[in-house]
Amino acid sequence: MKYNIAESIKSYLVEIGMEQEELARLTGYSKDAMAQILQGNDMSVETARKISVAVGYNFIQEMGYNVTEEILKAEQRY
Question: In this prediction, what percent of the chain has a pLDDT beyond 90?
Answer without folding.
Answer: 44
